[in-house]
Structures are given as C-alpha cells and as structure tokens.
Amino acid sequence: MPNAAAPAPEGSDRSVPLHVAIIMDGNGRWAAARGLPRAEGHRRGVEALRRVVRAAHELGVLYLTIFSFSSENWSRPATEIGDLFGLLRRFIRNDLATLHSDGVRVRVIGEREGLEPDICTLLNEAEELTRANTKLNLVVAFNYGSRQEIAGAAQRLAREVAEGKRDPASIDADALGQYLDAPEIPDPDLIIRTSGEQRLSNFLMWQAAYSELVFVPIHWPDFDKAALESAIAEYARRERRFGGLAAKTGS
Ligand code: IPE
Ligand code: IPE
Ligand code: MG
C-alpha cells in the first residue's frame, strides 16, 4: 500500500500557505468594461503583479507561482501575443534589480524552446542573478502547460527505459514528479483564480492534486493585498485531509 501513511506535506498545517499559485485572469474584461484596449488591461495586470509580490512576502508566503502565458495562449491574435511578450520583457528589465535587492528568487517554468532568443536570455539572467535569494520564490509559468510538462516528464522516463538505464517498474508518481519543471518546489497549498472563471486551464494539474482552490470574482488588475489576505483567510478556514481523516475531530 504505497503512500498509505504519507504525512501531510510541509506547510499544510500553517494558516498561511507556504505556496500560493495564481491564475491571473480577467485583464481583457477589465479593460473592455472601461472601454480600453486589452493591452491596457495587461499593463495594469503587471502593476497588480508588483503589488501582489510585495504582499505575498509581507504575509509570509514563501513560494508564489504566477500563470503569465499558457501554451494555449498562442491561439490569441499576434498583436496581443506581442503585447504580452513586450510586458514580460519590460517587467524583467525594469523590475529585476528591485526583485533582487528585495531578496526574491525568480524561477521560470514552461517550454523555452521556440521562444525568441532575447526572451530566453532575459529569463536565464533573472534566474541566474537571483539564484541565492531566499526571501520569496517567484515562479513564473511562462509558455507553460501542465499536459505538456507531464508529457515531457514521460518522454524523459521513456528514454531512460529505452537506453536500459531504468526499470519500468521504478516509474511511480514520485519518479514522474522528479522530472517536472521544478521538482524541488513544494506543491501549491492554495491556487487562486481571478475573474470568476472556475477552471485550471492546464495550470499545475499534477501539482494541484491536494491544493485548495479559491475563485474570486474580481479581475486581475484590481487584485491587491486585501484580496490576497481574504483568499488566504478562506484557505485557513478549509480543512485539508489528504485522503485521511479530519485532524480536528479525529473521526
Ligand atoms: C489574463 O487575462 C492574461 C492572460 C491570459 C495572459 P486575459 O487576457 O485572459 O483576460 P480575459 O480573460 O480575456 O478577460
Ligand atoms: C489562463 O487564462 C492563462 C493565464 C492566466 C496565463 P486564459 O484566459 O488563457 O484561460 P481560458 O482560455 O479562459 O480557459
Ligand atoms: Mg482569460
């Protein structure tokens, strides 16, 4: 009976989640409601991101993962993709020094192949510069899709089997988990999605197995510290069981 007595992962007994992951959604609708171009919604979304990085650290969160561009977002018009990539470039160029001096470690998950070389260089620079920082881990999911990530892990395991380096019987959930993009980062305790949509849209589907999901109606550009605090308060009211029995009653 593997995993029968698996302890609840580290952080699960805290009222503040160790790892918060956010699906930053609703930029376009925020802009449309104000008669503004979608690009303005994305620009204001970056401002919300700055606020939330600061707030997450102030509230005691150690890992913050943000969904910034999905594998499926390539189906948007080229101009919008250009806007989103431009904002990422500007965010790294303008904010990297501040993030670094604030002790933030930047990590990037997602597919790098096929991205423009200057974007790859910026992402690598951000990771290299901040490698030793320990205050807050900011994990940027860029060109990220959970199915693609899991398929990539399966491909690496299959290759090891084909090369005679691995016994197929050794492939279990832990082995596959080790080949995901950032295996050393704990699973998210709390996943927040803004804008009222209630789906994962190919975000961290493996890692979300026991995450608490909180859906908030406000659009991402309006998200702030108070909204994060209220999502964390909702999280603190949840009872996490990990397949076991309620801890409080023992029944
Ligand atoms: C989130 O806002 C940003 C990205 C997906 C990159 P959207 O652009 O999805 O905004 P809506 O959902 O159309 O309002
Ligand atoms: C998810 O939002 C992707 C990001 C926030 C980067 P989408 O707006 O792309 O998701 P769907 O299409 O509404 O499911
Ligand atoms: Mg959306």
Could you describe the 3D structure shown?
The protein is of the alpha/beta class and 251 residues long. It has a single domain (19-145, 187-237), classed as Decaprenyl diphosphate synthase-like (Undecaprenyl pyrophosphate synthetase, 3-Layer(aba) Sandwich), CATH 3.40.1180.10. It contains seven helices and six strands. A six-stranded parallel beta sheet has the order 3-4-2-1-5-6, sandwiched between helices. The longest helix is centred in the middle third of the chain and has 24 residues, at 78-101. It is globular. One 3-methylbut-3-enyl trihydrogen diphosphate is lined by residues 24-29, 69, 73, 84, 195, 220.
Named CATH topology: Undecaprenyl pyrophosphate synthetase
Beta-strand fraction estimate: 5-15%
By DSSP (H or I, 4+ residues per run), the number of helices equals 7
Shape: globular
Cα gyration radius (Å): 19 Å
Please describe the biggest sheet, giving its number of strands, its sense, and whether it closes into a barrel.
6 strands, parallel
Bound molecules: 3-methylbut-3-enyl trihydrogen diphosphate, magnesium ion
How many strands in all?
6
Just name the CATH architecture: 3-Layer(aba) Sandwich
Class from helix and strand fractions:
alpha/beta
Give the H and E element order.
EHHEHEHEHHEEH
Overall CATH class:
Alpha Beta
